[in-house]
Amino acid sequence: MVGMKWVALVADRLAALYPEETSVRRVLGQAQVDVTRIPFDGRASNVAWFASVEAARQGRLDLLVEVMGEEYPLDEWVAWMVNAMAEGAYDGGHDDSSDQPRGAGVVGGFT
């Protein structure tokens, strides 16, 4: 499975960009993620976390990021993830946060 850092980065942006259940379900559908094991009753941050974990378990986290990149090409964090995955950093071994956008990987943008 991909590193939890990637899951956290995706979950953070997923919660911010897709705060409604219908939006999360739609984007997961486009990424071909089976949503039957995802609890959709709760805060957007919790739903996004479980959705990202499930996407990673199914080997579709990269597809989820691709869909997010298509819908939000100007989002700095999403663009960084798309580019990092294209450069091969997706394997979970990439822990150098110096090239991430400011605040990336911090849920809600708070430190």
Descriptive report:
- Helices cover 54% and strands 0% of the residues.
- The chain is an all-alpha fold and 111 residues long.
- The longest helix is centred in the first third of the chain and has 14 residues, at 4-17.
- The protein starts with a helix and ends in a 25-residue tail after the last helix.
- The model is unreliable at 92-98 and 105-111 (pLDDT under 50).
In short:
The chain is 54% helix and 0% strand. It has 111 residues and is mostly helical.
How would you describe this structure in keywords?
single chain, 111 residues, mainly alpha, 5 helices, globular
Layout of secondary structure:
Layout: H1 4-17, H2 21-30, H3 44-57, H4 61-71, H5 76-86
**For the CA atoms, what is the radius of gyration?**
13 Å
Helix content: 40-55%
Structural class: mainly alpha
Number of helices: 5
Largest sheet: none
Which stretches are poorly predicted, pLDDT < 50 over at least 5 residues? 92-98, 105-111
Mean pLDDT across residues: 84
Strand content: under 5%
Give the topology string: H per helix, E per strand.
HHHHH
How many DSSP-defined strands? 0
Shape: globular
Gap from first CA to last CA: 26 Å
